[in-house]
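Chapter review: from sequence to fold.
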Amino acid sequence: MTSARFRRLNSHGRNHVTPALRGREDTSTEESYQTGQTSHSDNTKRVITVLGMDSISDDTQLTSDGAAPDHTSGEPIVQSLEKRQRQGTSPKPYLLLLGVVALGILAIGQILIVSSLNDTQDQIESLDEQVTGLGGSLYDLTQTVDTIAEDAEAAAADSAAAEATPAPSVQTGYLPRFSTDSADQAVGMQLAAIEGAEAYSDAALVIDPADGTKRVWMVWAHWCPHCQQELPELNAWWPAAKDGFPGAELVTVTSSIDASRGNPLEPYLEESQFAFPVIVDTDTEIAAQVGVNAFPFWIVTDGDGTVLFRTAGALPIDQVEQMFRQLLEFEA
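The token string follows.
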């Protein structure tokens, strides 16, 4: 391009130059052209060497854009190199697939880890609830044990107090008042003689509990509804049953007489015609002597007058019969 420009400049001043100068100019122009060609060829070789195309021969002719033709594809070498570079840097399909699979595996792993963490959290919460419930149960058990211990201590204290407390003082021959709150203190004591008028004969009776006869005593009141219910049943049972209890006797005592409370005593006795002895306790002395606390009241004594059993309340006939049988079987 430089030689061409000089040629254009020289074309304007060609007539003003002597022939000797023109000949020298032509020679210089030819040398410059050859030098330019040599320089251009050297630069092309250096480019090809850098690009790794050392196998291209020196006599390979370049195309108009400065590239040697590709003998295999017919494309210029520069374009072929650019194409190869694009093919070398483009991602491979199997690498993309491996990347997607790896991401999927990582995602699944994350999901499994999160799920496992959630399950572990649930298990921890469940275990915490169980531990809390166990703690509550342990607390309840401790409270129960403490309560039992307190009750035991109280019972021991009561027992010690009962042992230290002397039996209530009673008149000689009298039994302590009956109570269901503790063991009957009258059991084992001796019942004193019972004295009073017999209701039907009006004869004075003195019965010694220690005369060898085993007895069941019943104390009742004419105004007591439970007594009014039990006495007729007892009266119907005893005449036929008494022969089956040899050495034993049924004795009744009517006490707490009060005409204002209904069912007056004398008409009731006349109407009932009891088949067992009825001793009239006009001043409740006998009731106090045996420790009555309610009506009807029962006392069982052995042949020597020892009190074996006491109770208050109406008893069915079968229980009364059982009481007689146990009395006969009892041996001091």
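Two observations follow directly from the output. Confidence is low (pLDDT under 50) at residues 1-38, 47-74, 159-168. The two ends are 158 Å apart (CA to CA).
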